[in-house]
Every structure is written in C-alpha cells, then in structure tokens.
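quick one if you have a minute, typing this from the bus. below you get a single protein, a line of residues and a line of whole numbers that encode the local backbone shape. could you go over both lines and see whether the tokens make sense for that sequence. anything you notice is useful, everything is just below.
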Amino acid sequence: MTALERLFRGAPSRTVVVWDFNGTLLNDLESCLDSLNVILRQRGMAPLALPEYRRRFLFPVSAFYKGLGIDPDREPHWDAVAESFHLRYLFSRKLTLQPGAAEAVAHFRALGFRQGVLSALEQGILEVQLRQFGLLRYMDFVMGSRGYYGSSKADAARTLGLAGHIVMIGDTLHDAEVAASMGWHCLLCAAGHQDASRLASGSVPVIGSLTGLAHL
C-alpha cells in the first residue's frame, strides 16, 4: 500500500474528503493573474509573471497584496476593486477544471466517500462555478466565504462539524494549516496557486496533479 493509498484507508462510510476549490479543483491561475495584473497596471506597478505569482501567493489574500505593495486597508475604494477583480475573473475564458478533477470527484463518490468544498471564494460565485463545471451534484456540503477578500478558512472549517476520517485536498500551505488545526489529514496538489518547492515545506504529502486519484 502506497502512502497515498494509506491516506484514504478509512472505511468508506467514515471517510470525508474536503476539497479546496480555486487552484485545486479549478484551474484558475491565469484568470486570477490576469485580473491581478490589471490592478497592478492601474497603479503603475509591474505585472507579475506566473512563476513569481506562485512563489509569492499566500493567505490571507490581504497579506499577499500587502507583500506586493498594496494595502487593502488603506485603499478607499477597495470594495469596488475587489468586485471588479471578480467580474473579470468570472468572465475569463481561461477557467477550466484541473486535469483529473472530475474523475477524482466521481471516483470518490463511487467509493462511498462523503465530500464537499471548503473555499475562500464568495459563496454565490462558488456555487455557480461548481454547477457550471458539473461538480455540485457530487458535493454533500459547500462552504464558501461571505465576501470577496480571500480570508482564512479556519473559522469556516470549524463550523462544518465534520467527524470521521477526514482528508483535505488543497493547493496552498494554508490548506495544510487549516487541516492541522482541525486534526484532519491533508494532501496538497502542486498544480495550483503555490509551487511544489513551497508546498514541500508543509510536512504533508504533495502530488503533482489530481490525475492519479481516480485510480486509488
């Protein structure tokens, strides 16, 4: 039995898979980067290339912006900026599912696992995108954010009240932190918003893509 197989060793009736959405199930890196670079250019700042974005991205998203030299707390019209970002993002033609995402979700359902989504994305947008990409019907719960600010998911995780053998699958070190705070297992995928070298510091298993999960 491989380390990955052991991660999902729990009895099907007690196994719960908690998916992150952005960067994990949904490949939205280019869409997010395009929207971010509009904000940077509007301020006369140099745009980011994708490798640099993946090296620097972190939660909460406000800390990421502060690291770029933009402080949302000091921006008088930040609500409008955030809404504009999400409108560009939603109408992007570059949004796709991550390779293997649909197959993994369907496979886990066939195994009898409960599964759902825990995301920092605004709840309404999250539900729309899950439906758009055909994933909502597989989910037993969907927990998004009440706003557009990409805040920590730790508080939302506690409200889920999950019990059993719980595995969180995400694409950032924040997902590992949330899982650790809840006593959950965690698996990180290096196809998302943080690169493999950063994820390797999280002391949890890291995979390159979701494509192998449908064969567990």
Observations:
- The chain is about 40% helix and 15% strand.
- The radius of gyration is 17 Å.
- Residues 29-90 form one domain.
- Residues 29-42 form the longest helix (14 residues).
